[in-house]
Amino acid sequence: MAASPGFLKANEMHVAGFGDKSSLAMPPGKKGTHLGFKEGNAHVAGTQAESPKQAFPPRVPLKYTYHVNIFYSADAVRDIVISQRLLGTREIALFHHTGCGILQVNTPKMREIVKAAAPGDKQVAHLVDHLEFHEFSDVERSVKKDVEWLKAHPLLLKETVITGWVYEVETGKVRQIV
To answer: Which residues of the sequence carry a binding annotation for Zn(2+) (predicted)?
Structure first.
């Protein structure tokens, strides 16, 4: 049974208690990031069941992985391959979100910012000059592009169900795009 049909129902519960979360600090106060996947017992943009017991009924594991804006990287593919081969993942729900910081910059601008923070550091300059930030200007188009990229990737299982979603930071709602 696919996990994604329950997203909208679980999201309605999330939106009901969303409150003033749209005013959370941007950028976040903590300077960390999570690259990889979240397990089913984590709340995912308000799309999971309200408790881990709902997400994982006894002996009926939920098998899907959540990735966020980490595509086009070896780490993302590695995480998905591990999840598919070791955890039985057969469905990927890709989420992007409105208000994403990358909407405000592009690769040349990000390279400038990084180099300005490390003036004269040739190693930093060299590394950032070879780094693509995969900026985008249209969240929905980016979701579609990432879903296509995942579906075409030779290391992912061909039977994988891949859906694409947009999480609206302003309201807490999610919309299925693909």
So the answer is: 97, 100
Other Cβ atoms less than 10 A from the Cβ of 61: the count is 12
Q: 112 in a domain, yes or no?
A: no
Catalogue the long-range contacts made by 174-177 (C-beta closer than 8 Å, 24 or more residues apart).
174/7, 174/8, 174/11, 174/45, 174/46, 174/47, 174/95, 176/4, 176/7, 176/8, 177/140, 177/143, 177/144, 177/147
pLDDT by residue for the chain (178 residues), tens digit each? Answer: 677 778 888 888 888 888 887 776 655 554 333 333 333 333 344 554 443 333 322 222 333 334 444 455 666 788 788 878 887 878 887 888 888 878 888 999 999 999 999 999 999 999 999 998 888 889 999 889 888 988 999 999 999 888 888 888 888 888 999 9
Place of tokens 């180099």: 115
How many structural domains compose the chain? 1
Q: Is 100 annotated as a binding residue?
A: yes
